[in-house]
Amino acid sequence: MDSCYAIELRNITKRFGEVVANRDISIGLKRGQILSLLGENGSGKTTLMNMLAGIYLPDEGQILADGEPISIRSPKDSFRYGIGMIHQHYKLVDVFTAAQNIVLGLNEGGLNIKETNTRVQEICDRYGFDIDPAKKVYDMSVSEKQTVEIIKVLYRGAEILILDEPTAVLTPQETQKLFAILRNMRDDNKAIVIITHKLNEVLELSDEVAVLRKGTYIGTVKTAETTAQALTDMMVGHAVALNIDRPFNQNQTERLTLKNVTCYDHEQVKKLDNVTFTVNGGEILGVAGIAGSGQKELLESIAGLYPVAEGSIEYTPPEGDVKNLVGMSPTQIHKAGVALAFVPEDRLGMGLVGSMGMTGNMMLRSWKNGFGPFVDRKGPQELANFIWNDLEVVTPSTEFPVRRMSGGNVQKVLVGREIASHPSVLMSAYPVRGLDINTSYAIYNLMTEQKMNGVAVLFVGEDLDVLLELCDRILVLCGGKVSGIVDARTATKDQIGLLMTSVGGKEEA
Predict the structure, then answer these.
(1) Are residues 71 and 216 in the same domain?
(2) Total domains in the fold of the chain
(3) How many other C-beta atoms lie within 10 A of the C-beta of residue 219?
């Protein structure tokens, strides 16, 4: 590598105990360039950039700025070299204004609001940001909070910006706005790194792509000279089919109908507002929405885990009479013959017992099947072995405690167990979060298989590309209300984005 790089990593290695997170990585970043750092979850992307941010220290190798070796031992050092990192989880003080957060920690002898607001406005005008410096953080949307974080590092003089999964919680419209701002920064000779695993965004935004796989550097390619398939092969190490199969089930039957369902939390804040829809056996109904729009409460209310204040949830079993699930406990729902398989957002908190191995966690679903005081272990052990082999769970044995597994492996155990319980309604929240591409596609195929077997599948997802490819219809939630239900085969990301930000998808005048 040469000294034309604004920042350069040479032969960087980082270990956490016996785990090697980064092994002998060398990457350079030029001014006036957007570099995508691409890799699957757990490939070492964030760890590598955290060394530039002063959060971790490399065990081996060196960092160079403009060809000169430097030492970054703290975030303060990182700022001194003009490096600013915008993390996935924002580090803002809720009760402060945008301006107060932006200057927080700067020794400027007190806050001169007028001067700060003027400088913030200059940054906004220069790059195309839209923010009110006097607005409190607790009144902001996720997109506005991200804007404050970016302005905060620019205000401190950052010339090198690192953004960790910046579009994970943005609507398509907000994503496009962010991309326009990043291009303006690139044109102003800033060096920008985007940590991501979304191929479509990589191809749209970046100039070059550096690929990591399992902590090692695979290579850097010019974005204009590559394809999604080629990048996937680099990430995974072998060819992967990228198309999700979506057959149509002709034999759809009404399975679950929600009518005017309204729910409140313990502080009497309305979480679901007059929600009405039907999901059929033989279809995948996707659920989209900005984080916190009621997705979690929707699934939990159907599963008997969240109290329903008003409305009904009518379940029509494959055989038998219609049952109203409202007021039933999860156990009563099970006794009534309602097979609801629930993959929650909080995998260890709600779905699994961390101290148990895979077999023990399989038994949670079948312990009542034992005879007298004896618990059946044979069935759960066979199921644990099937999931271990079929979904390639990386763990020494089926008795290894799940809390010591990686997040992706925990998710495989949970999804595998729920699907194997042969439900008639399968509900899943973010079932591929933290999983590699291969396993993600295996789970998409399992969901489709369930659909073709007549199961009603409710799929809460955050990647609109996947929702549009996998689902038959998509229900969009906005502030706890049903904003709209669209045909996934004909809908667009823009259409869903508008529904996510305003009920009915109407733009504000």
Answers:
(1) yes
(2) 3
(3) 10
CATH assignment at residue 144: 3.40.50.300
Tell me the three-class secondary structure of 282-324, residue by residue. Answer: CEEEEEECCCCCCHHHHHHHHCCCCCCCEEEEEECCCCCCCEE
Q: Residue 87 sits in which domain range?
A: 7-236
Do 456 and 485 sit in the same domain of this protein? yes
pLDDT digits (tens, 9 = 90+) for 80-92: 999 999 987 788 9
- Give 108-157 pLDDT, tens digit per residue: 556 677 888 888 999 999 999 999 999 999 999 888 999 999 999 999 99
Could you tell me the sign of the dihedral formed by the alpha carbons of 71, 72, 73, 78, in that order?
positive
Query: Does 498 lie in the same domain as 428?
Result: yes
Dist CA 21 CA 454 (whole Å): 43
Give me the amino acid identity at 127. Y
- Residues 328, 370: one domain? no
* Range of lowest pLDDT (44-53, 156-165, 363-372): 363-372
What's the whole-model pTM score?
Answer: 0.74
Structure tokens at 61: 């190798």
Tell me the H-state helices in 277-435. 295-302, 330-335, 358-363, 378-390, 407-420
Structure tokens at 434: 């933290």
Cα–Cα distance measured from residue 455 to residue 276, given in angstroms and rounded to the nearest whole number: 20
Q: Do residues 382 and 443 both lie within one domain?
A: no
Same domain, 195 and 315: no
